[in-house]
Specification:
By secondary structure, the protein is mainly beta. It has one domain: Phosphoribosyl-AMP cyclohydrolase (Ubiquitin-like (UB roll), Roll), CATH 3.10.20. It has helices spanning 34-43, 119-123; strands spanning 14-20, 26-32, 47-50, 55-58, 67-74, 81-87, 102-105, 108-111. The strands form three sheets. Strands 2-1-6-5 form a four-stranded mixed β-sheet, covered by helices on one side. The chain has a two-stranded antiparallel ribbon with strand order 3-4. It is globular.
């Protein structure tokens, strides 16, 4: 079975690099446990495990910024997943399309893109 081939870490988690299925733009990195992987495969809705909240969550359940999974890949060591998704809205909880919205420029981190939603309106302040 596909799940048996995955190498979860000592906490029972595997990192997932999430990218746009068409462009391969990296949108975010998250963690998945075995159940999150199974649920993602079954529903095609990206489901992750929150290490801080110690529970699973479906991307977009509170924001509406859902990720429809188009494909799932593993790396050569089977210890990292890559998810190709169709992203609705932004992937980042700070309101950007990607969590990678800052770039090192002259020794400083600078934002190089615009927000696609206001996180205070979506999540409250």
């Amino acid at each position: 079975m596909y799940i048996d081939e995955l190498k979860f870490n000592e906490q029972g988690l595997i990192p997932a690099v999430v990218c746009d299925a068409e462009t391969n733009e990296v949108l975010m990195v998250a963690w998945m446990n075995e159940e999150a992987v199974r649920q993602t495969v079954e529903t095609r809705k990206a489901t992750y495990y929150s290490r801080s909240r110690q529970k699973m969550w479906v991307k977009g359940e509170s924001s509406g910024n859902v990720q429809k999974v188009q494909w799932i890949r593993i790396d050569c060591d089977a210890d990292v997943l890559q998810l190709g998704v169709e992203q609705t809205g932004g992937a980042c909880h700070e309101g950007y399309r990607s969590c990678f919205f800052r770039e090192l420029c002259d020794g400083e981190w600078k934002t190089f893109c615009e927000r696609c939603f206001d996180p205070d309106e979506v999540y409250g302040s």
